[in-house]
Every structure is written in structure tokens, then in C-alpha cells.
Design brief:
The structure holds two protein chains of two kinds.
Chain A: H1 14-25, H2 47-56, H3 65-73, H4 79-86, H5 94-109, E1 112-122, E2 128-129, H6 147-159, E3 164-169, H7 178-191, E4 194-198, H8 204-212, E5 217-223, H9 227-233, E6 234-236, H10 242-246, H11 248-254, E7 259-264, H12 271-288, E8 293-297, H13 317-330, E9 335-338, H14 344-350, E10 357-359, H15 369-374, H16 395-404, E11 408-410
Parallel strand pairs in A: 1-3, 1-10, 1-11, 3-4, 4-5, 5-7, 7-8, 8-9, 9-10
Antiparallel strand pairs in A: 2-6
Helix pairs in contact in A: 2-12, 3-4, 4-12, 4-13, 5-13, 6-7, 7-8
Chain B: E1 6-8, E2 11-13, E3 17-19, H1 26-34, E4 40-44, H2 45-48, E5 65-69, H3 76-88, E6 94-97, H4 110-122, E7 126-131, H5 135-144, E8 150-151, H6 165-174, E9 180-182, H7 188-197, E10 201-204, H8 206-209, H9 214-234
Parallel strand pairs in B: 3-4, 3-10, 4-5, 6-7, 7-8, 9-10
Antiparallel strand pairs in B: 1-2
Classes of the chains: A alpha/beta, B alpha/beta.
Chain lengths: 417, 256
């Protein structure tokens, strides 16, 4: 697959440009993405081999309408049934799959829809991931909030009524170290019932420390499970190491986190294979850690600042819906989160079928909640956004929209232990 | 029948329907109290522990007993901590122990449940443990100070009815505490059957929550539970399980 995402910023020095081009065009100039870097903990786990073996042997063209019909008849969805649901042969059965998915969602979650909001506390990044707005070659306004600023942001979010927060950083250990993130978690515990983290992958003892600081849920997106494609998209930095990222959820559970979240960034590679691998990552890990709570997200590529080559249309809404219905039927007990990357109409529809959690009042920038939530004029001291969101509804608007659909919006269902 | 009170931990109730907490809504609570006659309502502490403006605690009518549960607990220690928190936030002394180390099937962990029951009973809680219907575990729960045992009928939320019927019957026959059938009851007829078997009460949630007409289903459960209870108290007639009864006694040839 050729790489459509390369963009050169005008600000880059000749030396930086030369290194960037070398990384982009000469694969020999990159490190081995399957080799752990120094300091990266290696755990004993066979989950990655299991997932990759299933994904690599998945030929979705061999499934037929007969397989999909049989899968719909089965009370328990097998891995092979799930493969049929993800195949092109299942496309004409989308409505039947949606009905089955709605039934499973209601059986396990009733009519509840959980709500959360992300809080970006820093957007420094040491990686060159070619599709991401935070990548180290992209000329954006960088910022890292200090504790006082973080607390102010949390107060504003908490005042809106939100009880669950997801703390995010760009992936820079040097700019946003584990202690910095830990202090942010301690602050968050003062204002929120549930604190999640979406940061760079860390070692077991670091997850343990972050859990002690108040975090209870760890989200790591593998972006793509296709190892070769992963290598072509993540050219520089610690994120380049595929297995260390793959094993992040397992290390988080070993560190005592209550739950973990997974996803591929749909559209980076073959989305059917990526969807299969994402769900199997959950499936095999759940068998090994049956007490853990797990959830799947389903982000599609979104436009980023300074790059107009990226658009989400490679995975259509119908295909996204097919993936989410397949996830729900295969893993009825797993949370499914749909972020503000998706449109208002899509989110209103999918919470009635498969999704159990939505974000609201979202900003993917840094330090801009006061201007976004309270209309205060921006003082320009804000960090740029990771990507452009689609559904900009506030918590209040989202809460009312969910309730109007006859569903029960829930702000908290966690108890920190 | 009027004197047939349901005694639980020294407290007296008229209703033998308990509302579970799995899928809650204000409409469900209203229907459970008004139409099903519920006097005990389960409450997930993890859900109640909120600053949400629509707190479930505000919707519990006067005179209804709160039964906080420890859902979210994975160990005895966590269940004990949640029970204490429930007492602190004003939920009273009743507690339903739920300890699950499996997020897929949400099956209760009997061993950890016994440990938590022992600790909380000593602290003066009226402990109602949710359990897998195992006789040994039920006996241990009695010894640990439980006020009742709450065996599951089928996997939670499955509406599959009395899948564990034979094992629940063993508990009813052998355990000298109220046996409250919890989880899996999907229809009023199944609730009625459990009551006929001698269950002391029925806990249900999903069966009501997912009904087309919530108040009507709540009323149906009330009637079914009362019918089953009456049948149990009146002594069920003989039920033939196989073939017909011979009109001439098989032992008629005996001469002494």
C-alpha cells in the first residue's frame, strides 16, 4: 500500500527534512519495529501470536450469505461466525445484524449509555506517525499544562456535570513523564469518579503507580494490527515498537488497572482484518484475565492540521456500523465507545444498536476548555488539536439527546478500589 | 395468607418481590413499587455514589427498604469496603453481596462471598449473598451469618428461567434460611414456579425492564408470585412425572 499521508512543513530545516525524507523513503534507515527498545519491559504472553495467526489467515472473500445466515442462527457467536459478520457477504444482512446487536446490547447493558470527556494535558510528541496531528514533524502549537492549569480545566469540566474523564497526552516521555501524569491523576480523583488514561504505553510498575494515583482504565490504540503497515506508518520514536504497544493492555492489567480499551484506527489498513484483530485482542485477553473490564473503540481517520490528504471516507458509515454490530454480537459483554470523530446522526443511531459509551463536550486541543465551555475569549495560550472532531455537542446537549431517545444517560458506574 | 409475612433479618415484609438493580430507570422503580408491590429495592452502590442530579436515592419512595449491592467488587475485601461505603452514604444495614471475577458471565464467586459474609455479618449487616446454587457454599453462608441465600436461577440478564431448578430445590430443602431466587427469571410463570417450589422471594429486574408495558408486567409478576406462594402454602397436589397411575394397587397382592 503506498503512503498517501506524507506532507512537508515549511518550518522544517534542511537537516530535518533530509532525515524525514530518509525515514519515509528508505526503510533501511528505520529501526526494527518488532524489536523492543531499551527500558521496554517484555512480558511472557502468547496473545499476540494468537491474534496475528488468526488475522493473517483471514480470507474474508471466502464467506458467503449462507455462512452469515448460519452465524445469525447461532446463539453463541464463534470466531468463524464473527469472521463471516465482518465479511463483504454480510453487507446485505446489516439490518438483521443490527437487530441482533440491539438485542445483545439490551441484554447486557439495558438501556444505559455512559458518558465521558477527554482532557488533553500535553501535546508534545516524539514519534513520527504520519497520519497524526501531534507528530513531531508537524508544525503545531505545542503545550503542556502545569498542575494549576490542569486543575482549572478539571474544575470547568466537573462543573459541567461530567464524572468520568480520560486524560490524554502526546507520546513524549521527556515532556510528559509518568510522575507528571500521576500528579494529574491525583488531581482528577478530586473531581471525577472515574479516571482513564490514554498515554504512551508504559511498564507494569508504572501502570501500578498510575493506578495508585487514581487511574483505573487504560486505553491504547494499536492503530493497525498489520505489522508491515504499522512499520510504514510509525517511522520514528518508541511508538515504532509494535509488540510493546500490543502488550500494553496486558501490562496495565498486571499493574492492577480495572479495565482496558482497544482499537485500530480504521482506514489505515485493511479495516476488516484490523477489526478482526481488535476484537480477538479483547477476546483472548479476556480469557486470560476474566475479571477485567474491556471495551472497544472504533475511530476512523480524521483530518488533521496541515494535511488535507487524510479523510475518513475509506470506511463508510455502513461499514463502520457493520463492524460495530459484529463486535457486539461476538463480544456482548464488552463496552463499545463511539467518539466525537463521528457525526451527531451516526452517534444518535448507533447508541440504539451497539454503542454503550459516548464522549461529550469534547476538545482535542490543550488548555482550551475555558474558551470552549464558558465562551471566555482565548488568550492564545492553547495547544493545537490532535484531530478535528465532528460532533461538538456539550454534555448537557448529549445528555438530553440520549434521554430523548428513551435511553438512560449514566455519568458514573464505577467505584475506585 | 394475611399472616404470611416475609421475615428477613428480623424485618417483616408483605411483598415477596424484590427489584434487582441491573438496569434501572425511574419508571422501573415506580412500576416495581406501585404495580409489583415491591418493598425492597436493590441499589448498586457504584451507581448511587454519584453527584448526578438524578440520583437514584432521590427516587426511592418512603417506606421502601434499600438493598445496596456490592457490584463491581472482585474480592471479599472490595465487597466489604463497598458495603461500608453504602452504610456511610445512608443506605442502612441491608447489603447484598455480589462478587464477580468474570465480566463475561458475571457469575458469583462463592468462596469470596462466604468470606465477605462472615466479616459483614459480624459488623451487624443483614447480609444477603448472591451465589451459585451449591449446597456446600450455602451451608457455609449460613454458618457465616447470612440472613438468606440468593441462588441464581440462570445467568444474569439471560431471562432463561429456572435453569438451575434442581439445585435450587436442594437449597430450599436443606437450608434453614429464606432462599431468594435471583437472576435469570424471565417470565411471571417462572417466578410462580420458583415460589411453588418453596422459594421465599423472587428478585428480578431485566424481565421487567425489557417488557413492552412495564406497569402491566410488574403487576403480572406480583400476581404470579402470590399465586406461587399460595400454591406452596396450600400444599401442591400430587404431580405425576411418568405414565398413568395404576387403578389396582401394585402392592395389592400383599396379604399382611
Amino acid at each position: 500500500m503506498d503512503n498517501r499521508f506524507f506532507v512537508d512543513g515549511e518550518h522544517l530545516s534542511p537537516a530535518a527534512l533530509e532525515k524525514k525524507h530518509c525515514l519515509e523513503t528508505n526503510s533501511a534507515s528505520r529501526t526494527n519495529h518488532m524489536e523492543y527498545m531499551q527500558g521496554m519491559e517484555q512480558i511472557k504472553s502468547d496473545i499476540m501470536d494468537k491474534v496475528l495467526s488468526e488475522m493473517n489467515s483471514y480470507d474474508y472473500t471466502k464467506y458467503t450469505a449462507k455462512d452469515v445466515k448460519a452465524a445469525l442462527e447461532h446463539e453463541t457467536c464463534t470466531i468463524d461466525d464473527f469472521k463471516a459478520f465482518l465479511s463483504p457477504a454480510a453487507e446485505p444482512f446489516l439490518e438483521c445484524m443490527a437487530e441482533r446487536a440491539r438485542f445483545e446490547t439490551s441484554k447486557h447493558f439495558g438501556n444505559t449509555v455512559y458518558m465521558f470527556t477527554p482532557l488533553y494535558i500535553a501535546n508534545y510528541c516524539e514519534n513520527y506517525c504520519v497520519y497524526c496531528g501531534f507528530n513531531c514533524y508537524n508544525n503545531i502549537s505545542r503545550m503542556k499544562l502545569n498542575m494549576e492549569q490542569i486543575e482549572r480545566e478539571m474544575q470547568i469540566i466537573s462543573d459541567s456535570g461530567m464524572e468520568e474523564i480520560l486524560i490524554l497526552t502526546g507520546e513524549s516521555r521527556s515532556q510528559s513523564n509518568v510522575e507528571y501524569i500521576g500528579e494529574a491523576c491525583k488531581l482528577a480523583r478530586k473531581y471525577f469518579r472515574m479516571v482513564g488514561l490514554e498515554i504512551y504505553p508504559v511498564n507494569v510498575d508504572e501502570y501500578k503507580y498510575l493506578h495508585q494515583c487514581g487511574a483505573d482504565y487504560v486505553t491504547v490504540f494499536q492503530e493497525t494490527y498489520d505489522s508491515d503497515r504499522y512499520s510504514d506508518l510509525h517511522l520514528l520514536g518508541h511508538k515504532r515498537v509494535y509488540p510493546y504497544r500490543f502488550e500494553a493492555q496486558e501490562r496495565a492489567l498486571m499493574g492492577g488497572m480495572r479495565g482496558v480499551a482497544f482499537s485500530a484506527l480504521l482506514g489505515l489498513s485493511d479495516f476488516r482484518k484490523d477489526a478482526l484483530a481488535s476484537a480477538l485482542h479483547v477476546y483472548f485477553l479476556q480469557r486470560k484475565y476474566p475479571h477485567a473490564e474491556m471495551s472497544l473503540s472504533c475511530p476512523r481517520l480524521r483530518p488533521i492540521i496541515n494535511n488535507d490528504k487524510i479523510n475518513p471516507n475509506d470506511v463508510s458509515e455502513s461499514k463502520l456500523c457493520q463492524i460495530l454490530c459484529a463486535y457486539r454480537i461476538f463480544l456482548p459483554f464488552v463496552g463499545i465507545t463511539v467518539s466525537s470523530r463521528e457525526s451527531e446522526s451516526f452517534r444518535n443511531g448507533i447508541v440504539k444498536i451497539a454503542a454503550t459509551k459516548v464522549s461529550a463536550g469534547v476538545s482535542t486541543g490543550v488548555g482550551d476548555h475555558e474558551s470552549k465551555y464558558e465562551g471566555k475569549e482565548s488568550d492564545g495560550n492553547e495547544g493545537d488539536e490532535q484531530f478535528e472532531i465532528n460532533d461538538a455537542r456539550s454534555l448537557d446537549a448529549m445528555y438530553r439527546a440520549i434521554a430523548a431517545e428513551g435511553l438512560q444517560p449514566v455519568l458514573n458506574d464505577y467505584i475506585y478500589m | 395468607m394475611n399472616n404470611d409475612k416475609f421475615i428477613l433479618g428480623g424485618h417483616e415484609f408483605n411483598s415477596r418481590f424484590i427489584l434487582g438493580s441491573g438496569k434501572y430507570s425511574m419508571k422501573l422503580i415506580e412500576a416495581a413499587v406501585r404495580d409489583a408491590g415491591a418493598e425492597i429495592i436493590t441499589l448498586a452502590v457504584r451507581r448511587a455514589n454519584t453527584k448526578e442530579s438524578e440520583s437514584i436515592l432521590d427516587y426511592i419512595p418512603e417506606g421502601v427498604t434499600l438493598l445496596p449491592n456490592t457490584s463491581g467488587a472482585r474480592t471479599a475485601d472490595e465487597a466489604v469496603r463497598i458495603a461500608r461505603l453504602a452504610r456511610e452514604i445512608g443506605c442502612g444495614d441491608f447489603v447484598k453481596i455480589e462478587i464477580m471475577r468474570d465480566t463475561k458471565y458475571l457469575l458469583p464467586d462463592n468462596l469470596e462471598t462466604i468470606k465477605a459474609t462472615e466479616i459483614l455479618a459480624k459488623e451487624g449487616f443483614v447480609v444477603l449473598p448472591y451465589m451459585f446454587p451449591d449446597l456446600y457454599a450455602a451451608r457455609d453462608l449460613v454458618n457465616a451469618g447470612a440472613a438468606a441465600v440468593m441462588p441464581l436461577a440462570a445467568p444474569i440478564g439471560s431471562n432463561k428461567g429456572l435453569a438451575a431448578k434442581e439445585f435450587i430445590q436442594i437449597l430450599i430443602d436443606e437450608i434453614d434460611l429464606p432462599v431468594i431466587v435471583d437472576a435469570g427469571i424471565g417470565r411471571p410463570s417462572q417466578a410462580c414456579e420458583a415460589m411453588e417450589m418453596g422459594a421465599a422471594a423472587i428478585m428480578a429486574n431485566t424481565a421487567l425492564a425489557t417488557a413492552g408495558d412495564l406497569p402491566m408486567m410488574a403487576a403480572a409478576f406480583k400476581n404470579a408470585i402470590e399465586a406461587g406462594r399460595k400454591a406452596y402454602l396450600s400444599g401442591l397436589g400430587r404431580v405425576l412425572t411418568r405414565g398413568a397411575s395404576a387403578s389396582d394397587p401394585l402392592t395389592g397382592f400383599l396379604r399382611d
